[in-house]
Design a protein that fits this description.
Two copies of one chain form a homodimer. Chain A is α/β, with parallel strands linked by helices and 327 residues long. Chain A has helices spanning 4-11, 15-23, 30-43, 49-56, 72-87, 101-112, 154-167, 192-204, 225-233, 245-257, 291-307, and strands at 61-66, 91-96, 118-121, 137-140, 142-143, 149-152, 173-178, 188-189, 210-215, 239-242, 267-269, 286-288, 314-317, 320-322. Chain A is built from eleven helices and 14 strands. The structure holds a DNA duplex (16 and 16 nucleotides).
Chain lengths: 327, 327
DNA sequence: TTGTAAGCGTTATCAC
DNA sequence: GTGATAACGCTTACAA
């Protein structure tokens, strides 16, 4: 690959002038500029980004640490984040943590070694004390002291779910989620507000008894058998709000296998947007997190980091009720 | 961040010696080594990877260009590729092309500008002539002249599908796929062998008439209404093989809405592995591409590139029949 | 308006 | 065993 030197030599100018042309910085005589551009084209010269990163101590690469890219919501979020970054000319590195803290840490090292210069963090591990504030870090959904975060409006999501189930005529409610969502957990997560809002809203409307099923945080895909048993145990429940569409799908299947009709006997809602394209049977009523909006908020913060402008401590993006066939 | 210079100064040695210690190259007296390691720890020094890339003209970053990360199969493949690369200490950049050729080209530029030093390409666009053989490029599923590629055993997949449907008692067959899969297309894809094998195998078993429905390549998620109408039109068909689980899911839903029972009236198979965790209703019988195996094959080729060892022109990885509730 | 040269943080060569 | 020093390809003072 030809370098700036080759261009300078062939055009009979100094390398600084070539640099000025490719960066459109400083003054260059029109004539010189054209000559240089011609040579650049002839040689097919492209500036070496590694060398640029070297002088600027920045590479405009963002790392996204997330549990995995298999979960439908994560795949969508990743897609939106990458698309939004692309517009602004940042590049995205994916880092599957599989929820393992040691993998997360090894990825976080990339900030110290200048492999990436900013990082989006989506984790349930309590790694706050390991996050150096001097780096450009953004958290999604989890609240870490001193780290800006982005989340969709989980409280509103829980509220909408409660109101919708009430409107559909449900009288006896259940909430199903994984236990990291509890408000008294080590990791403070925005997600816990789904349950909170759901229960508070029901209370306000006169429904004081809500069955809460929480289970150990899993792989986002499978839910334990006990949960399914619990669902069948409470035969009078007719309105169920699940922490995700994946959980809702399982719950619906469990109910139907047991001879219950959804939504006639039981109304079931999920969370994330119901965009499950492999949705055999019914489409799920859900709360859409609108990942394109959270992605935009994340990229906004990243830009503020790079521009050294003021960063809001957090950004909450709107959610939307999506009515499917399960309520 | 402290540099190698700071370490050298504080340890009272030259920078070359420090370099030898961090790279475990060349001879360093045990005593010196220990002193340097102590200083490294004290300073929290980490070598700057940008500078390293500078001298080595390599950054061990791999780009993965793919249509999107929303499709379940892509999300899985991405996960497996990233995991396999992680083991070997490579980093992965994701590049959603949304099937747009200009985005693909802009990502391919990253090879020229040294932002990444190898690339996995998953595309339906005919960009063979734009791919410079001097770069480390690997294609998934598509055959481009002179570019090594990896694919799962699509022929075997089609064959297994035919045999399974026959075994389940189907007599009248249909294939549903998108038209880029046709063998006479501009882009030569391994995927076309699914159809080929399906039809050839049926013929061998005495079934000579297969209805083939092909439609313009879509976004991998929606299938056109016409396809669904076609499905209902051929009332005597009782064995359908679809190009993906996503398509199969739609077909099944269409059939069931029309009052047909799957699998009693019609047996339907998909492709990709049936791991649709949002699978309400029935689980789909499918051909598992075993993305962990293709991922491994891809990473193998990448390693050969870096080591400058001989690269096989292609790698075909095994598939597996997964029996669900739709056949 | 342009060119020279220092510097970014490493690695690698070559004396000592 | 070890330490200067040149390179890697660029940006950016500073001088001309």
């Amino acid at each position: 690959m030809s370098s700036i030197k080759d261009v300078a030599f062939k055009a009979g100018v100094g390398i600084a002038t070539v640099s000025r042309v490719i960066n459109q910085s400083g003054y260059v005589k029109q004539e010189t500029k054209e000559r240089i551009e011609k040579v650049i084209k002839e040689l097919g010269f492209k500036p070496n980004e590694i060398a640029r990163s070297m002088t600027q101590q920045k590479n405009h690469i963002v790392a996204f640490i997330l549990p995995n890219t298999k979960h439908l919501f994560f795949g969508e979020l990743l897609y939106e984040v990458e698309s939004a970054l692309y517009e602004k000319n940042y590049k995205l590195m994916v880092c599957n943590s599989s929820e393992r803290i040691e993998k997360e840490l090894s990825y976080i090292e990339m900030l110290k070694t200048n492999r990436v210069d900013s990082m989006i963090l989506l984790t349930n591990n309590d790694i706050a004390h390991l996050l150096d504030k001097k780096y450009r870090i953004i958290s999604f959904d989890r609240i870490f002291e001193g780290i800006p975060y982005v989340a969709s409006d989980n409280y509103e999501g829980g509220r909408l779910a409660a109101l919708h189930l009430i409107e559909r005529g449900a009288k006896k409610f259940m909430f199903i989620g994984d236990d990291q969502q509890g408000s008294d957990n080590i990791v403070n997560t925005e997600v816990s507000k789904r349950r909170l809002a759901f229960i508070e809203t029901l209370k306000q409307k006169g429904f004081h008894h809500v069955i809460e099923i929480e289970y150990p945080l899993g792989n986002y895909i499978d839910i334990p058998d006990e949960v399914q048993q619990q669902v069948l145990l409470h035969k009078d429940v007719d309105g169920i709000f699940c922490i995700s569409d994946a959980v809702a799908a399982r719950v619906i299947k469990t109910l139907e296998l047991a001879g219950k009709h959804v939504p006639k006997d039981v109304k079931v809602m999920g969370y994330d947007g119901g965009r499950s394209f492999l949705n055999l049977g019914k489409t799920i009523t859900s709360i859409d997190q609108q990942p394109h909006l959270t992605a935009k908020a994340i990229v906004d913060i990243i830009e503020h980091y790079y521009k050294n402008t003021r960063i809001e401590p957090f950004q909450i993006t709107p959610v939307k009720l999506v009515i499917g066939e399960t309520t």
